User: Fold these one by one.
Assistant:
Number 1:
Amino acid sequence: MEEILEILEKNCRYSNEEIAKMTGKTVEEVEQAIQYFKENNIIAGYTALINWENTGKETVTALIEVKITPQRGVGFDKVAERIYKFKQVKACYLMSSGGFDLTVIVEGKSMKEVALFVSEKLAVQEFVTGTATHFVLKKYKDNGTIFKENKKEDREVLFI
């Protein structure tokens, strides 16, 4: 079962037939496993990993450290839920130690847009006591995928 998840995590576009061949299971076993994973929220969704730098679309990603005061009876969960519901928030993680409680990954069209989100929507949340914003300058690896630049050869090719 875990083997199927590892295959899907690397490339969710494999067909059930291909996964069956890779694992030595029957197509029916693979279909049943995937159905079980979906029903039990083990597979939470499918996404494509886009290298936006190669598309020409301007996007800015920021990692934001957020300090919060946990709420009585629900801890950090209720505050985190308010934060991750914003469309700008791409990920939200509770951290185990350090000087902050949540790591929030935010995307926007510009640094100004991200800064406005932090100052007008995130920092003003009732239980947020502080934030620190770090802008991503370049992605080298994301979700296990290495991003390589397309280097164009600027030398002239000669055929002899």
Number 2:
Amino acid sequence: MNWQVWLPLLVVLSSLLPGLIIFVLPENRVGLRTVLNISGAIAKLFLVGWMLWGVAEGHHFEARLALLPDIELVLRADPLALLFVTLSAVLWLLTTMYAIGYLEGSPHRSRFFGFFSLCVTAATGVALSGNLLTFLVFYELLTLTTYPLVVHRGTEMARQAGQTYLIYTLAGGALLLLGTVWLYTLTGTLEFTEHGFLHELDTAHHPSLIIIFILLIAGMGVKAALVPLHGWLPKAMIAPAPVSALLHAVAVVKAGAFGIVRVVYDVYGVEFAQMLNLLTPLAIAASVTIIWGSLRALFQDDLKKRLAYSTVSQVSYIALGVALFGPIGTIGGLVHLVHQGIMKITLFFCAGNYAEKLGIHRISQMNGTGRRMPLTTIAFSVAALGMMGAPLTAGAVSKAWLMDGATAANMPWVVWVLWASSLLNAAYFLPILWRSWFLSQPYAWPNDHPPIRQWHEAPWLLLLPPLVTGTAILVADVFATFEMSPLAWAQLITDREYFRGVP
């Protein structure tokens, strides 16, 4: 096999092999475990960078493993795959650093980091899947490897949250399996193909294809937290902060949103989906989720739960962009897959810092945190403003393209949904910023230990990741037109895969 075959496999193995080794390490082997974690994350980032350069130069990366005649596991690095896998690789490195600092001295770290690596391996497999079968396999592995992280604390609340998570995600996986098998019986193929592979089927199959679409989107919609399939996500916030960051920005919800993109564009094809009148119902479902998630976030005092309902709302921007028939909306949805990731992971890193250093879990306890933890609160503020779509942030780029896409698709009601979402975002984020920066601390925080110097508000492993991602939120806007920016890559995907030579 040549390097064009090996690279997709090595990207998957770069987190799988360290994870398997970490499982058997004694708890006291802190140094070796840290080396394995960081080296695996750096190796993955290097390999993904190599594939990014290769795809930009026109190279083709694909590995195939035959399971049965005409049934193969396929790993393929197309531009859409690389958008997701690059996000996962970059944020995995930062989340690994953060988790090492966050879990210092805690029990069961080998178990945690073993499953942590396997979770990222599954997310990488989802990103690089070249057919629906491979996607299904890694999608279910993602469920199984994330569950131990959700219940890591071992409390009764953690076990209940894990049970809810399994019920939802396994039910979603069953729907996805049913739709996949049904689709294979009709077509004899599950290969992801530019512009889809269903438009040539006889019109007699169209009713079946509509039902299959509903099954597939519902199966993906569980992890993407589409209403009413979102109930697991707020409950899963009982998990440690690095797990919450992984769920919301790197792996689970992104896998669901990414799957919706694949189904619409590489299974059905956007024009065929539009002909079957499937896109408008998807846009309505995404819009309902956007508003419902924002409204629920308004009434949460628990910081992580407010962020969880914000995720319910914000991730549906991706599905909404997919459902806007036209390249502009597609670009907005795809770039938001990246931008939401860096904004939301920043918020969860900061929430973890507040909990770890001050014992703060509720918004009502956050008075004066800006003066006590200024760097953390600056990063939180930038991410919150980005979620609102404030100028000079990544969120402004996403929302501008989505609004223009809605106008181009002759769906003006979507513009009103996006404006309403921005106002609701402001309504549940601005009070947090007001408390943090402008209100005085009325009492001692539960776990506060004043630092020797103000700049030592948290250990550097906890402070560096949110500062890096917070800076990235600003860079994503300022350098949006840069050749390798998320926006430019989303435009490349739209040009190369979805709207060139559409049948």
Number 3:
Amino acid sequence: MNKLARLQPRHPILSRKILIVDDNDINRQYLRSVLSDEDTELLSASNGQMALKFLENHIPDVILMDIQMPEMDGFECLNLIKKKHSDYPSLVFAVTGFSDDFGNTSFKQLGFDELFLKPIKANLFKDQIENLLQKWRKEKASSNHLLRYSDAELVEIKTIKELRKYASQHELLEIYKDFESETSEALKQLKSHFESNDIDKILSILHTIKGNSASLGISPIAKFSEQVEFEIKNSQTIDSENYLPKLLALFAKFVSNYERILKLN
């Protein structure tokens, strides 16, 4: 991959895309100031309708939802999100001055993943968000089925920002297209080598896919390739019925979303 030779970003770390939904300007600005850093992309919506509009084009990792908003409150907005996107890959946290008991029903029973009471404690809030997100991603990774990925999970935000220091939008898109083309061909070869049980060639291809995807911040493919490479090296056995379909599914998710993600970031 020649265009990658001059692009050497740091190893990708945890990136996150967060949508803040609150009708109060000061509250939105405060949360942005607390959460802002180079690994985080922050989006804001001043009401539930705007939040739903954002979710048509963005797949955030976390949605911070105020409860008391005019026209559409946080409960209604959450219900519409879950109704329209039953597999939506976002943690939805209530950020409110309400108590943890809404009538006789807790916020978690109503569908929220966590509750944060206002006023937010800045020194704890950011760490709490990151810890919950890390725990959630680990749980997803260990599940037996492939779930829908958020934008920041498919392509690391920090890696995109790093690559933009060296490449224009057009050049960056071409680099990812090159990755798509080369990886598509590599996966065809991988299928053939799985069928012939050629472990050395399988490991070589997996190693290349792992390296190229890590350089571009395509974490699901990089991590899964590394996992399969490790398991084959240690067991010297090939579980093609398990490995290959999952790798192909991850690649298909990337192909379906990367152009949109690059345009939005």
